[in-house]
Amino acid sequence: MAGELSHLDERGAARMVDVSAKADTVREAVAEALVVMQPATLRLILEGAVPKGDVIAAARIAGIMAAKKTPDLIPLCHPLPITGAALEFEPLGDDTLRIEAAVRTTGKTGVEMEALTAAAVAALTIYDMCKAAEKGIRIEGLRLLEKRGGKSGDWRADAPGQPPPR
């Protein structure tokens, strides 16, 4: 293991990390998720023809809301003042919709979990809105792409020394 697990105390019990001594800095994180479906389902989304409404608009709002609610979902996450959250959607081929979630704050700890949660909830929203058209939609590839700021500095998934995506 690369480092010590900071969410565990000396006895191995879970704890919320005390970040009070850390400096407030600008912190950013970007995550992605892929939603894989039949080409006909992706066409419905892109043409705005899903009976439940505008899938991408709903997924975008759901992702932003999820970023703000991350500490309510992930037990040891700190509540953070999210200063920015944006989601982009990009078709890949004829059967995949890529979601990219970017989250920003000025604070004592990073927003990696908020970006991951935003991408995941946006993907789940797409599934929910499209499940009547296709039950076999898959959510794949949820991962952190990059983080900036903080004591540990910048990190990119495609940087040398990082494992390639599977």
Low-pLDDT ranges? none
Q: First CA to last CA: what distance?
A: 20 Å
The fraction of residues assigned to DSSP E strands is 25-35%
The name of the CATH topology is: Alpha-Beta Plaits
**What is the global morphology?**
elongated
State the major sheet: 5 strands, antiparallel
The name of the CATH architecture is 2-Layer Sandwich
Class in CATH?
Answer: Alpha Beta
What is the strand tally? Answer: 5
From the alpha carbons, calculate the radius of gyration and give it in angstroms.
17 Å
Averaged pLDDT: 91
* CATH homologous superfamily caption: Molybdopterin cofactor biosynthesis C (MoaC) domain
Number of structural domains: 1
Query: H/E element string?
Result: EHHEEHEE
The main sheet orders its strands as 2-3-1-4-5
Structural category: alpha+beta
Walkthrough of the structure:
Residues 16-150 form the Molybdopterin cofactor biosynthesis C (MoaC) domain. InterPro entries: MoaC, MoaC_bact/euk, MoaC_sf, MoCo_biosynth_MoaA/MoaC, Mopterin_CF_biosynth-C_dom. This is Cyclic pyranopterin monophosphate synthase. Substrate binds at residues 76-78, 113-114. Pathway: Cofactor biosynthesis; molybdopterin biosynthesis. The chain is built from three helices and five strands, in the order βααββαββ. The protein has a single domain (25-154), classed as Molybdopterin cofactor biosynthesis C (MoaC) domain (Alpha-Beta Plaits, 2-Layer Sandwich), CATH 3.30.70.640. A hairpin with a 3-residue loop joins β2 and β3. α2 packs across α3. It is 28% helix and 29% strand. Strands 2-3-1-4-5 form a five-stranded antiparallel beta sheet, with helices on one face. The radius of gyration is 17 Å and the shape is elongated. The chain has 166 residues and is of the alpha+beta class.
